[in-house]
Amino acid sequence: MSRTLPTGENGRPFPATTPFSSSGQSKDQRSIVLVGLMGAGKTTVGRRLAARLGMAFHDADVEIERAAGITIAELFERYGEAEFRRGEQSVIRRLLGGEPIVLATGGGAFMDAGTRDLVRQTARSVWLRCPLDLLVKRTAGRSHRPLLKTGQPREILSALIERRHPFYAEADMIVDCTDDGVERTTERVAEALDAHVPPRRLEVALPGRRYEVITGAGLLGRAGALLAPVLLQKRAVVVTDSTVAPLHLQTLTDGLAATGITVDSLVVPPGESSKSLAGFGDLADRMLALGVERRTTVIALGGGVVGDLAGFVAASVLRGMPFVQVPTTLLAQVDSSVGGKTGINMKAGKNLVGAFHQPIAVLADTDVLSTLPIRELRAGYAEIVKAGLIGDVALYDWCESHAQDVLGGDAACQAEAVRLACAFKARVVGDDEREEKPNDGRALLNLGHTFAHALEAEMGFDGSLLHGEAVGIGLVLAFRLSHRLNLCPGQDTVRVARHLQRAGLKWRLADCGRPLDPERLLAHMRKDKKMRDGRLSFVLVRGIGEAFTSPDVSDADVLAVLAGDDAALTIP
Fold this sequence. Notes:
The protein is α/β, with parallel strands linked by helices.
């Protein structure tokens, strides 16, 4: 059974998917929209850029005056700014609806949310960022600018910078202007366009709502531009742990602040110990002490532990707050950040208290993977393998061909691995958000996890066995159990075990480092949240890419697999 990997759908407020060449560079041929304050040089640069690229050039202000038959100043005087902006958006929509062009917009155009959405969907935007002194110099004597007639130009421009720059920062690219000539600025814009690789966007479509998983390099520094379109208010609380904070927190908060988002941060201890009732209560108390509102967004910056904990707090505080996942481990990027499962651990087992609380966005910055130790990369890689084993033979074949590239730090292969795994999970979650289909829905994502959670519980969640490491062992055990039940060919079990071994993952019970009692492991499984009518439900396989769920597995068969000799698997 091979599943077709999903693709995103276009629609507000998300832009169209951008095509890529085999090298990963953008082949984006959409229009180019220049934004910035008066005096930034949008028209002058735009004309030269259009000539350089062989595209038509249009100035939005000129087109507005032509359509209205009066000047911009007269339009402001007669109708006011609000009505002017509505007409401006209509003109820009018309201009961007035809062949690709270079368009220079008025200084206030990008302030309008509807215009920003329009540009985001149909064009590439470039902010010509210009310092105050240069703006003052360039606008001196421009009496036709209505906004400059109300006071001292420097004071007016300074106020405009403070108010408008956070919105301009949502542009796709930023080019700094200097006083070294318009040709040099034009060249910098062309270079930025040539080098720009937009993030990849994958839609998770759910009944009545949707969100995007955005993957790419450098997303933390652009977090404000990427998240501003979906935030309910420009305020966020970032939850992270003390390991991730010194590595990535400042970059994220700077990226958010660039678009005027006010940020508070809360740091928790690293590791599974934070996913407890005590940890939940402490984080909820600290969040409430900040005076958060129901429209304040909680942003989880970290691995699966931070995402699960922050997500559960977001689901609970004030009876629900918006939530964004910014995963910093490979495992979190490909698995736990997508799908809306949140929760904490209890003495009885892992993730037994929690809620389904879908994020409003996921930002998976592949640059952060370079800071991970190889053990963390391997743990995340196990979840990518799992996706292929569940329902996509082509994905599993890709893993066998590219494992060393992914684990060796090849950025392009890592990005593709994240995209493929998220695409698979997005489809499964979209079909069965709350794991309500008993046989062929989201429950399939638990392949290997009944074993894995029991192993983690027996090891005491002390970090000696990472979740992804437990999943790797659990995958082999699931294939062994399926083979014992005469469901799966023995060669498939060997193939999976061999691949995990060659990738350097833990794949057998002996890799846990100490003897494990099968009866104790089975006792942990009986506390699993996947129990149905008092019986364990296992995800089994008929082969690679052919997973299904079954409640008809005897304790005797499970114990036989747990007590079996891993060495009996011949790994060539």
